Amino acid sequence: MTFTVLTAEFVSENNTFKKGFTELKDFAVDCLIEGDEALRHRGDANTELAGFADVAREREWRMAHAISALAAPSAPVSRAAYDHIAGVICRAAAALGDRLDGILLSLHGAQVAEGIEDGEGELLARLRAIVGPDLPIAVTLDLHANATAAMAAGAQIWASYKTYPHIDMREVGQRAARLLHDAMARRTRPVTLRRHVPMMDEVNSGRSDAGPMVALYARARDQEREPGILSVSLNAGFSDADIAEMGPTVLVTYDQGHEGAAARAAAIADAHARAIWDARHSCENDFLEVSDAVAVAKGFDPSAGPLVIADYADNPGSGAYGDATNLLKGMLDAGLTNAVFAPVIDPEVATALHRHKEGDRVTVDLGGKNDPAFGGGPLRLEGEVMRLSDGAFRGDGPMLGGLDRSYGPTAVLRVGGVDILVVTENEQMLDRQQLYAFGIDPTRKAVLGLKSMQHFRAAFEPIAGKVIVCDSGALSTPKMSRRPYVRVRRPIWPLDAETTF
Ligand SMILES: [Zn+2]
Prior knowledge:
Layout: E1 4-11, H1 24-30, E2 31-34, H2 37-42, H3 48-58, E3 62-70, H4 79-96, E4 102-107, H5 119-131, E5 137-141, H6 149-154, E6 157-160, H7 169-184, E7 190-196, H8 213-223, E8 229-235, E9 249-255, H9 261-278, E10 287-288, H10 290-298, E11 307-311, H11 326-333, E12 339-345, H12 347-353, E13 361-366, E14 379-389, E15 392-394, E16 404-406, E17 410-415, E18 418-423, H13 433-436, E19 447-450, H14 456-460, E20 466-470
Parallel strand pairs: 1-3, 1-4, 4-5, 5-6, 10-20, 11-19, 11-20, 12-18, 12-19
Antiparallel strand pairs: 2-3, 7-9, 8-9, 13-14, 14-17, 15-16, 17-18
Zinc ion is lined by residues 142-144, 166.
């Protein structure tokens, strides 16, 4: 029998502390493509969609792809943009009607839209209103999902990444697709149970290269081979989205037709939730103040590779503005040489620099424009325009390999001994091509200041002499009490020391 499967990607991770809204034009910068055309762009790369397509070929499905809508992490999605994208998916489901055998979705799991606190739960509710309660639905999630109870109830099958840096997107897509196939073929009767840990997020945000989660991901993979246990997902949560159900969750998808699976699934979920809670003091990162990070840089010997300083708190990948200047100021004031700072997201200055030519001397007020209270205000800088570019690059690392991206109008501005990548569009540092494409060879540099929390490690750790992490005080500061939470359910650790679990 040939199954007809509706697929879609609707991915955004929304920081409720960030001003403004994510609009359709912001999706268009990253990816907003309807129908099969999306497969030509994302169907053979490290994406969930590629994993869906692999299994569709393998199991000879009729795959109907509604839309690929992916935005860089940012402010909540506007209601108009949310309704448009959700509408494309829902209309596709309605059009297929009774011919539809299953739905396969790639979502993030921390989507907040204007007036909608649980974007994924709302999408599933709208779909269920069309297809009814029983049609098999499988969903992939980023491991930084806030997975709500409504989400878990809205689909039978859930599969999250098990890597941070995220490098298993295609594999997770394949996994969810195969589980959906078994459900459509009535070989399994999947359902998912959920456990929620009263923490803002897992203590290392789900790092899979260090800390307590390494063992938990390995255990989860083993458990997925147990009879009747179909998928074990450990979601670290996303604490920049102030919603009631924020925090780490465990989702265990099991086969109701397998005797004993329900009890085993509950035991697995309870044990993982307990382990995440018990490890809440085991933070792997040493968050250096700017002055301490710069002191390390001043004495650093780059003969074994550059010093990488992660500007953790201004990670554009968690919805911070990407224009905070505190770390850059520290690097400039210290007179560092042969250094790079990347990126500063400042469309105004990027545009202004494009009115010049390479080699010109310029004076600009760079960065710090969105919210100077978080991470520092604009810096008046005089420097030389080293490179002007349309911002396009093609990734070649573990996360972006083969994917075309663009920073929009981009310039390299050299101030003292620091080459500053000034860009227009929002993108954290994920790939060495984000420097090579603009004439910077990171292997030949002494110091790389990179805006990213953890993802930079996939591409930059292999060439780094040393990695340190800086809290520059920007919007994604690990000092959570600096953010004005109002929605999250209290008590919650670490905001409320008395929290118990
Ligand atoms: Zn993530």
